[in-house]
Amino acid sequence: MSMAGVMVLLLKETFSVEFDAVPPYSFELTLHKPAGWWWSTPDEIFEDGVCWTVTRFNGELLGLKIWSTGTLQKPRMHCAVYSKAKVGNLEKQGITRMVKRALKAEEDLTEFYRLSRRDDILRGVVKDLYGMHTVGWPELFPALILAVTLQMAPMKRSNQMMDLLVEYFGDKASFDGKTMRYWPSAETIAAKSVKELQTKAKLGYRAGNLVAIAEVLKDDFPTMDELWAMEPEEAKKKLLTLRGIGDYSAELVMPRMGFPLDVWSAKIFHVLFYDKEPENPRDVIPALKKVAEQRWGRWRGYAFVYVLNDLPALSKRIGVDLTLF
DNA sequence: GCGTCCAGGTCTACC
DNA sequence: GGTAGACCTGGACGC
Predict the structure, then answer these.
(1) For a FRET experiment, which of A83, A198, A261, A313 has its CA 20 to 30 Å from that of A153?
(2) What does pTM read for this prediction?
(3) Strand (E) positions, A183-296?
(4) Strand C closer than 7 Å to the CB of A160?
(5) pLDDT tens digits for A202-249?
(6) Segment A128-156 mean pLDDT
(7) Percent helix, strand and coil across chain A, each rounded to 5?
(8) Are strands A8-10 and A171-175 parallel, antiparallel or unpaired?
(9) What is the mean pLDDT of residues A118-134?
(10) How many folded domains does chain A comprise?
(11) Does residue A14 sit in the same domain as residue A76?
(12) Distance (Å) from CA A243 to C1' B3?
């Protein structure tokens, strides 16, 4: 695919930080999840225990190189930050806070593991993925792009939409010998016409929603940082005010992830709870969410991520192939 | 080839 | 407060 017209931003190392995480913390499983989901951008690279990725902070593109020198029980992480211009002390603090929070470095899983010991579904998956933490979104708009493009589309088509968005409207950064693309800003998308997003990114009816979201974010909407400061339910309510963001998308995007059941995951959890596929997956979503909340409480987001990242082994244990859904 | 169907939700318009 | 029906359009599938 042609890269014509896309500027590559050269980023230089500007500072680096080191920090501990609450054990057990598996750097590899957390940042390089078995199911293959990326953390910040689809182009991010994970090689030999090192992650290169890109994010945006106060409108400026940042390259991040993150690696671990610790162990599962004594985790220590390093993050080198690359930028175009110098960053001030206040910004350094903000960037550090964002990275630590998004990597869930300070999340203590003791309680989750305790409840997992007496839970038939979780007992096996926490053993398989011991030390894996969930990750948070570094930035709000990309998370919303993901949610919108996942709606009403098979994965292949969702990936196509995301790839075209990044390709035609995104930015490119080059640092530490790596070059990768990053999501467009809300400002960029707000300036495009719905028609252009439909034809170039093949967004279909989602184009109108994405432009509307971009306009609100550009003008007056809490940042991911500000959403983190809210109660989870309050943050969710705020997200639900965006056009095209419903229950599923809000729970996927909100800080301290909820239990974002879609048709695919609803089938899986229905088999796990009731030993059979639902007749109509969309109809059982509300009831499944209630069951998950009663069973796992505030750790239901962790249960969600652990289960969906361990489908092959879990399938073998229960004798049903959950990877076929 | 070509036609048909419908997807890893959300909103609106009606009850 | 509950629920059909519409929504874009590219793949997947049947013929």
Answers:
(1) A313
(2) 0.97
(3) none
(4) yes
(5) 999 999 999 999 999 999 999 999 999 999 999 999 999 999 999 999
(6) 98
(7) 50, 15, 35
(8) parallel
(9) 98
(10) 3
(11) yes
(12) 34
